[in-house]
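Suppose a classmate hands you a notebook page containing two proteins, each written out with its sequence and a corresponding row of structure tokens. How would you begin to make sense of it? This section walks through that situation. The first entry is reproduced here exactly as it would appear on such a page.
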Amino acid sequence: MYALEKVRTSVKVIFHLLQITVILSGVLTLLTVYLLFVRPDSLIPIPPKYLFPITSIGILSIINGFIGFNCLNSERKTKVFLFVLTLSALMNIQIILAISSNRILDKRVLWMNERWNALSAVQKEYVQRKFQCCGLETTSDRSTPRCKFNVPCSSVLESVLRTLRNTSQLVLVYMFFIETLSLCTLSFLKFIK
């Protein structure tokens, strides 16, 4: 009996750490969305239909983390059900986002052309200086007059998109693992007495 209590205490600590991780990931997701995509001076304004799943992941992560803390100390099955429900929604959105993130690269040429045309001359200069490139498809393709680099921006931006996609997929897999572990530890704590 003493050994089981010791294991339960350890699993409870692990569960708390997992919930803190889930809450922090939600906060970081929302912060990243704001800093990269939503700010008025953002160079990567993404349409709201693409931001909705990412924002949903951030909000659901925060809600799920707090529900997890709440249901651990409660005997009510409703809280456990709510935890499992929000966790299921969160995990499903993550799977959909991971699968659909490959479409970014499929539509990159059209997207980059639209974005490049929408940038002001100052923004184009900033992008060209930041990534040390000129123009879009070629160095003379809609570049600013003062640009002196020999690399077209499309190849550099494509590399940035690939890195962004790979990083986001890695984060989604990591969070999926954390959430699955969270569900397993809660199941252990609630069902093994």
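The notebook's second entry, a different protein, reads as follows.
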Amino acid sequence: KQALVNHAVEFGNREITPAFNDLTKRHGILFSNGDTWKEMRRFALTTLRDFGMGRKMSEGIITKECRYLIEEFEQLEGKPFSNTKAINYATANVISALMFAKRFDYNDPAFQAMVQRENDIILLTGSASVWMYNFFPWLGPFLKNWRELIKNVESNMAEARKLIADLKETLDPEKCRCFVEAFLIRKKQLEDSEIQNLHYHDENLLYSVINLLEAGNDTTANTVKWSLLYMAKNPQIQDRVQEEL
């Protein structure tokens, strides 16, 4: 209580390790602190709720993607298979719909590579050599996993920049379709009103999108995979789940 309540300001910030500091430059939602974190978190929660997070509106996006996922499973005609990639693609598409108002075909090579890099980033971030970087940053050029992590992050950032640039070209303030457009509209409103804008800039947009894509896809996909495994091992639970749905 002394730390988290009575001295919340002093103890409220998140520890940013050297690795995450270099990867995110303290922009975005997950690895920022202070006013930037508060504003980006508030904007993300408000915007995602506006687009249906936790409401009926988001169910349409999820249901639509489920149909594509079922079609993918049906093509295997009951043969044993790993569902990892298909589920990763499905969850990535749901998040992409909220971020970019766009879904990708499961067979799109660029999309497959992007999702694979997202998974690799999560694994590499937890590797021993990357944690060693936190203690000895000067070792970075000599650590294979650190070099691979930087390469994957930069590649996904380049893909995100392209998608953001496409949305900038077609931006219509009267028709907001996704998180990126909501951010761009807010940024333009502040610029037009000449209000000091410390948080709504391109780097915060880019890193916020990357944060939501990578963290959201990994956690959601793993939850779905464990749920399917649990129901496969306990078939009686499937009826209860179907009733709830």
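A careful reader of the second entry would note: The mean pLDDT is 89.
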